[in-house]
Amino acid sequence: MTYETVSPADIPGSPLANALKQPLMLGVFLNLQDIRLSTFPTTSTWTFDYNAEVVRKADDLGFELAFSRTQWLPKGGYDGEASLDAFVALGAMAAITKNILLISTIHVLYGPIHPLHLAKYGATLDHISKGRWGINIVTGHRAVEHEMFGWDRIEHDTRYELASELFDVVQRLWTDTENFSFEGKSPWKVHNGYITPKPLFGRPVLVNATGSEAGIAFAAKYSDIVFITSPGGAHIDSALETLPTHIANIKAQAARVGRTVRTVINPVIVSRDTERETIEYANAISRNAIKGAFAGYDSDAHAWRGRGDASHKQGLGLGGNIEIIGTPEQVVEQLVALKKTGIDGVQLGFYDFLPELGYFGDRILPLLKQAGLRL
Ligand SMILES: Cc1cc2nc3c(=O)[nH]c(=O)nc-3n(C[C@H](O)[C@H](O)[C@H](O)COP(=O)(O)O)c2cc1C
């Protein structure tokens, strides 16, 4: 049975409730990993200092969300082999930001991590950030990662069952005012578990990143936000075609259990003042593409299957889950169209992150306000 908590989305004054007032939430999808898509020059880098500057800039521009991916790859898995942990790095960003929500991607089954650890670490970050911290729950889709932790990959749907058990207990620790004990299918147990202080707004923000029915069923019960992909692949036309049904299905599943979930997606924005400059820039990134460093690892994820679907238009390989390419006006047109699919937010990525986030703030954000997508 699901242990139910009140979502911070339903608590007036919580950072999440405030973020949800925006017609289209804006986020940054930080790259804390040394992964290069192209040899075309860029200032982007995995370092904490670079990403700290990005997140501060996004916070100043009024963005609501910051996310990053996390992976556990063996030697050779990243170009330069450096990859910061999103739990620790996004948590640390609480101290250097004011309003932006900081969502740490955590592999909640590896270890196994104990619910008391997650609950205590989460409550601590919740108090440091004043309710701005949350978890992007991922369960691990690559066999090589599970093997690194010393076991065979756990079967796809079983992962969500174990994550459910874990979050029933974590949520209970965040809210229950008495000690309690628990023993279930998971390898951990709790005896007289209790944590205090409790989170400031019911519990930290919960997100999960998924494309499968089991993952969506999990999101319907536990998440405030679902981080989704385009079922049709990276081209904006394919995304606009396939997202409405996908998003409607997610929202309907949540409604069936009496909950509301929001959806976000991560486009890359490639924009210059004129169409010619934009196309030249996009082509330059694409022409100098480096073959994906971790493309060879086995994955059982459903979320990215659209990328292999030849019946849909695919992108240029510029990064992001979908590609938004054009002049500032054309970018806004595409974001307006995306909003019409039912999406609640976008977590933006840029090839050359810091200068292009600045360009977005100067040239695109004012147009988004004019278009009614931003308050
Ligand atoms: C937008 C998005 C971002 C994700 N980010 C990560 C990540 O950073 N690390 C990771 O291990 N898995 C990540 N995942 C994978 C999911 O957590 C999940 O393991 C995968 O999608 C397989 O589950 P599914 O079949 O439910 O989609 C991401 C998935 C999506 C859709």
Provide a concise account of the structure shown.
It contains 11 helices and 12 strands. With 375 residues, it is an alpha/beta fold. Strands 1-2-3-4-7-8-9-12 form an 8-stranded parallel β-barrel, surrounded by 5 helices. The protein has a two-stranded antiparallel ribbon with strand order 5-6. A two-stranded parallel sheet has the order 10-11.
Rg, please?
Answer: 20 Å
Summarize the amount of helix as a percent range: 25-40%
What string gives the helices and strands in order? HEHEHEHEHHEEEHEHEEHEHEH
Which distinct ligands sit in these coordinates?
A: flavin mononucleotide
- Main sheet: strand order: 1-2-3-4-7-8-9-12
Number of helices, counting only DSSP H or I runs of 4 residues or more: 11
Strand content: 5-15%
The assigned structural class equals alpha/beta
Quaternary structure state of the chains depicted? single chain
- The CATH superfamily is Luciferase-like domain
Low-pLDDT residue intervals, each spanning 5 or more residues: none
- Looking at the overall shape, the CATH architecture is Alpha-Beta Barrel
Biggest beta sheet summary: 8 strands, parallel, barrel
Number of strands: 12
Distance from N terminus to C terminus (CA atoms, Å) equals 39 Å
Silhouette: globular
CATH class: Alpha Beta
CATH topology, which one? TIM Barrel
Protein name: Luciferase
InterPro entries: Luciferase-like_dom (IPR011251), Luciferase-like_sf (IPR036661), SsuD_RutA_monooxygenase (IPR050172)
Domain Luciferase-like: 40-344
GO molecular function: monooxygenase activity; oxidoreductase activity, acting on paired donors, with incorporation or reduction of molecular oxygen
